[in-house]
Amino acid sequence: MTRLNTCTFIKQIVKITSIAALLGASLNSWAAPTEIKFSHVVAENTPKGQMALKFKQLVEERLPGEYQVNVFPNSQLFGDNNELSALLLNDVQFVAPSLSKFERYTKKLQLFDLPFLFKDMDAVNRFQQSDSGQKLLNSMKRKGVIGLGYLHNGMKQFSASSPLTLPEDAQGKKFRIMASDVLAAQFQAVDAIPVKKPFSEVFTLLQTRAIDGQENTWSNIYSKKFYEVQSNITESNHGVLDYMVVTSSTFWKSLPADKRKVIKASLDEAIAYGNEIAAAKVNKDKQAIIDSKRSEITYLSPEQRAAWVTAMKPVWAKFEDKIGKDLIDAAVASNE
């Protein structure tokens, strides 16, 4: 090969290499964003549903083209009995189960199921933001689950196919509960029959009278139309139904530190947004149920409420060793 031909050949190689480099860079810039799946079991018009959509919006605005958050509401991907298993298998990256759902990963979160522990949502919030409450976010790290924040739904009410005014009114009735030993003990304390069933099945169970009642927040009772198949709702405010937004240790550690910081900030903002909606929806959804005239609302007198407290409070002592007396005392202190 002559010297001229060699130079020409080298120039062509350099040109081809440059084109390939540019093409590679272009392909990288066109690469599909990393998918983040956020699965939950409630409707999109609930505090949790709106929080998840806000999270999607913020992440995609702040990390455009890098991450795509796909939200799957209403148990479209996973039900509330298998979403945590799916999280650990990385089939989904974010879930927000009710605090009752973590029983198999830590007994400490059973605290939130204790009946009549918190007097209102302000007390719940004070406890969750305290040192004791924040430590609970890390109570499942050894099991591969990382808590990132608390999301409110509200205080729980009893509903049934007949009025519930005193504890004896619940005797012999079947109530759907989440998979929680504390909630089972709560209903057993008033001689009712707890039935552990997925949230997605509750409406049908109520409609077909396979169960007599359930417990839930005004938001869930309204959004899932439970009031249409329950003739009576008792405003008991006997417990809290909150969620913990969690991810897996594996996924969280896989994120670049700078991206993780943006995603966490977006989640914090979305949770605050969801909590504002939760507070606003309590009275709004309650009033919508009243206006529907499908359910009769029972308001407990101080004496009637005291009877329920007396019947159910012994559940605290039953689970004190598993939860920790220090945590229960800290929760009680938040009521002051």
UniProtKB/TrEMBL annotation:
| Residues that span the membrane, as ranges | none
**Which superkingdom does the taxonomy of this entry point to?**
Bacteria
Task: Please report a single Pfam family linked to this protein.
Answer: DctP
Endpoints of the signal sequence: 1-31
Q: Name one GO cellular component term.
A: outer membrane-bounded periplasmic space
- Coiled-coil residues are none
Tell me which Gene Ontology terms the entry assigns under biological process. Answer: C4-dicarboxylate transport; transmembrane transport
Query: Which keywords, in A-to-Z order, does the entry hold?
Result: Signal, Transport
Question: What's this protein's family per the entry?
Answer: Belongs to the bacterial solute-binding protein 7 family.
The protein here is known as DctP family TRAP transporter solute-binding subunit
